[in-house]
Amino acid sequence: MPLTGVLAGKTAIVTGGTTGIGRAICLEYLRQGATVAVNHLGLEKDQVHLDTLVDEAAALCKDNSDACKLVHQAGDVREPDTAAKLVALAVEASPSQRLDICVSNAGICTFAEFLDLSPDLLTDTVRTNLDGAFYVVQAAARQMARSQSPPGGSIIGISSISALVGGGLQTHYTPTKAGVNSLMQSTAVALGKYGIRCNALLPGTIKTQLNDKDLEDDAKRTYMEGRIPLGRTGVPKDMAGPAVFLASDELSGYVTGAQLLVDGGLFVNLQ
């Protein structure tokens, strides 16, 4: 069966790609014909997520295994070598020996009272969400700009609605997501001459492993849903289509330095 999809023949990397938003994006990229290299921490507790992702990928790519396929690698995005190794893995797996798409998704969010917030939690959050994003974007850009001909590609930073609004229990988290927005704006300027587009995706309230306990509170969930014009919290799959849009040169070839809110209308209803 011939390869089809708007990302047919493209190669992508996705950090934090075995759960939540990263997983949904990974699967949709595969469905759209891409080869995807996924980063994960390699923790024993996460093995079941990796196993099911591998099985789903095999089913999606069974007729196009030479082009559409999943590869994966363990590593901590806080370490620069992790990004370089992930890019190398993707290029090796790529049918064209290129890297076309980078999704910097890996992140952590632990709610904490500002007055009690520990230096260790601040350091872990900044190093994962901001340092990790910088390292993977830089590694991807080096490949896209200097190591392939013609140069070019799409880089997507997963930010958050929290980059635009305050959060009393997120004083360590919201600055990192604002930093991702700023990183995408600055890299859009720095990398435009190489044909590399850089954009941020800003999820609203998306039910993932980061907030599932919070959303188990019926009263809190009902309150949150009441503030969302579309009347529901999001699910990871809601992020997949927008991530395909920003990845595709055909669909968003003149979009760079942009911030795309995917929040069911929550932000405009917070005013």
Automatic annotation (TrEMBL):
GO terms for biological process: fatty acid biosynthetic process; rhamnose catabolic process. Keywords: NADP, Oxidoreductase, Rhamnose metabolism. Pfam families: adh_short_C2. InterPro entries: NAD(P)-bd_dom_sf, SDR_fam. One of its GO terms (molecular function) is quinone binding. It comes from the Eukaryota. Belongs to the short-chain dehydrogenases/reductases (SDR) family. This is Uncharacterized protein. It comes from Emericellopsis atlantica. The lineage of its organism: Eukaryota, Fungi, Dikarya, Ascomycota, Pezizomycotina.
